[in-house]
Design brief:
Length: 353
């Protein structure tokens, strides 16, 4: 697997203000069983023109994190603390009305399933022009011409004809391109892509990821790419943050992470990726066990019940996110990181789920 990182459009000057800063963000949800600790103390920053990949299994908190940043979680059932700073402005406590002025115009999201994010009874053209007319005060003709250009930019053939189509008349790949066009319509500075290729076949997946990269460069946006697959972000992210049980457990530039990973969980995610060179019917190295219950998380390291390298300390003492002494750009949360002299051989092989 190659791990070349995407080229940023223009390097950010040293000391420049990040486009996005997330500081100790916490999001919990009320439930009949108690508080679901979905996100617990996440911090990171993102510059314009750069891509951050957020990777983890289902239930790791990555989608809740992206929705917390954009203020999309229901206020009636969620409890949030920490700060989200966008272009130097703290947007943590904005009300829904203020967030609506940011959505589309300043920050947008590409959702996982276009069939649930697109209105099935509304023509594609109207779904694109709505935000143009609301945020940019375009008249009907201006909005229509802009919509055509947006469809052309996301490589949909015959864009004039496609404006009158309904979502069900398009393929999965074309529907996802329409969702991208809607997200890009008002020229946002931050694009959140939440599992944008999950429902697509491999060929279309690559086309959509390349398209997102191209639009990020051309528009000089910051992008957060959320996925469960390390292979997706290998060639499409400048930096990767690995999440587990609501926390970031490893964060590093892409090339550093793949060549010097420290967390056994990151290693397990990498091993679970199918490879072309594998013989047919080769059994995948799935991660044994289940993600922890976020209502009653385990003591110590949340990954310890599934980790083949876990030692006694791991079950009682939760590791803090620490900086690698050899590389300040690399941080991890593990008492016995990979290749550490204190790490012992696996007590048992990684179980198959």
């Amino acid at each position: 697997m190659t791990t070349t990182t995407p080229e940023a459009a223009v390097p950010n000057p040293p000391g420049s203000t990040p486009l996005l800063e997330v500081r100790d963000l916490v999001t919990h949800f009320r439930s009949p069983r108690g508080l679901v600790q979905a996100v617990n103390g996440v911090s990171f920053s993102l510059q314009r023109g750069r891509t951050l990949g957020i990777v983890g299994e289902s239930g790791s908190g990555k989608s809740v994190l992206s929705r917390s940043i954009m203020g999309l979680n229901p206020r009636s059932t969620s409890i949030r603390s920490g700060q989200v700073v966008f272009e130097g402005r703290d947007i943590s406590d904005l009300d829904d009305s203020a967030f609506r002025e940011l959505w589309g115009k300043q920050m947008s999201m590409v959702f996982q399933d276009p069939m649930t994010s697109l209105n099935p009874v509304m023509r594609v053209g109207r779904q694109i022009t709505e935000s143009l007319r609301h945020h940019l005060d375009m008249d009907r003709d201006q909005a229509k011409q802009t919509a055509i250009e947006l469809l052309r930019a996301v490589r949909i053939p015959e864009p004039e004809r496609r404006l009158r189509a309904y979502p069900h008349e398009m393929s999965g790949g074309m529907r996802q391109r329409v969702v991208i066009a809607i997200a890009l319509a008002c020229g946002p500075k931050l694009l959140m892509a939440d599992e944008p290729t999950t429902a697509l076949d491999v060929t279309v997946q690559a086309q959509v990821l390349d398209l997102l990269d191209e639009q990020r460069r051309d528009r000089f946006m910051g992008m957060i790419l959320v996925t469960h697959d390390l292979g997706v972000v290998a060639n499409h992210a400048d930096e990767i943050a690995v999440m587990y049980a609501g926390r970031i457990v490893e964060k590093a530039p892409t090339s550093v992470l793949f060549h010097h990973m420290k967390m056994p969980y990151t290693q397990a995610l990498l091993r679970a990726i199918p490879r072309i060179e594998m013989p047919s019917h080769t059994r995948l190295d799935a991660i044994g066990g289940r993600p922890p219950d976020l209502v009653n998380p385990p003591a110590g390291c949340a990954f310890s019940p599934r980790c083949p390298y876990a030692q006694e300390r791991c079950f009682v003492d939760a590791p803090a996110l620490q900086v690698d002494p050899a590389d300040p750009s690399h941080s991890f949360a593990c008492h016995f990181p990979l290749e550490s002299p204190d790490q012992v051989p696996p007590a048992k092989p990684m179980e198959v789920a």
